[in-house]
What we know:
CATH superfamily of chain B: Cytochrome c oxidase, subunit III, four-helix bundle
Largest sheet of chain B: none
Number of strands of chain B: 0
Oligomer: heterodimer
Number of domains of chain A: 2
Number of helices of chain A: 3
Amino acid sequence: MTNHAEAIDQHIRTYLLVFGSLIVLTLLTVGSWHFLHLPIGPHIAVALIIATIKATLVACFFMHLISERKLILAVLALTVVFFFVLLLLPVMTSLGDQVGH
Amino acid sequence: MEIPYIVEPRQDTGLNNGKLGIWLFLASEVMLFGALFAAYIMMRVGGPTWPLGASILNVPMATLNTLVLITSSITMVMAWASLMRRNYSAYQLYMFATVGLGLVFLTVKYFEYGHKFHDGLYPSTSTFLAIYFTLTGLHMLHVIAGMVVITYFALAGRSMFRKNPQWLTNRVENTGLFWHFVDLVWIFLFPVLYLM
């Protein structure tokens, strides 16, 4: 029982750490937009990299993916593949148009 | 009849059925939002001009909403941790806090939408506003759906807790997975729509 309670306490400490990191990263996103005035390309890259780090933190710790079963990771890996296919569809369509011309 | 594998994991999957179900559902949700993100990229790359989100939208309000949703994720996960400790009153408090933060999110969004409509900016005004209202509107529906489920478990959880506390813990974990997914979608929507 003590071990169980300690494990939960450890979980809560991790959650609070992740929460703090998410707040800092959000402020960093807005700060980089407000103060750095980067050209559009690097600006998009910085914003998306920070968003990806935040999403990874949420998925790994709040959604427990870091200690999840392989079956769920396999389902998600397949989803990621189809997600990128979906994102690339517009590019592939425009390439097809160019070849057609 | 007892529903099988709601607490103990199935031998073949190593998971209880509820958890596998919610992850399959979330996978379909990734494809739903993925299709809309793909549409956004296609319109942005294909359009002759594209407005900077911040020139039309309210960045401070969206920043506030980002912080609100992140806070609601920690209250949601604390509700689950409270159930793991078998502390029902703390669980209920965190669940209501999560619903309250969801309400704050919706209120801020109400004012944001209100300002846009007041300025004559509608989904039909431009391609940018069309995708903005579609993505944020769909996301808002998910926030409302999550709030309905969380309210249900906050109000009706006591009898479930008495009967089978681990089952309630698993159901709240699954509800949390959906809520964190809603947070995760917003984490991308915020920079993509408001800051680029």
